[in-house]
Amino acid sequence: MPVDPVCGIEMDESLAVSYDYEDKKYFFCCNGCRRIFKKKPKKWAKKA
Ligand SMILES: [Zn+2]
């Protein structure tokens, strides 16, 4: 199951919000977390 790199929550892929960054797909529990990721993708991508 994908893990939200921002809040660390594990979620079902069908319920997740996805975002492509540098040829990698990231999944988020909600649009709020995706927005946070988009602000500082470098910081969060490292944690993923
Ligand atoms: Zn989240």
From TrEMBL:
Annotated TRASH domain residues: 4-41
SUPFAM superfamilies membership: Ferritin-like
Pfam families reported in the protein's UniProt record: YHS
InterPro entries per record: Ferritin-like_SF, RNR-like, TRASH_dom, YHS_dom
Protein's UniProt name: Cation-transporting ATPase
UniProt GO MF annotations: oxidoreductase activity
Gene3D superfamilies named in the record: Ribonucleotide Reductase, subunit A
Source species of the chain: Candidatus Nitrosotenuis cloacae
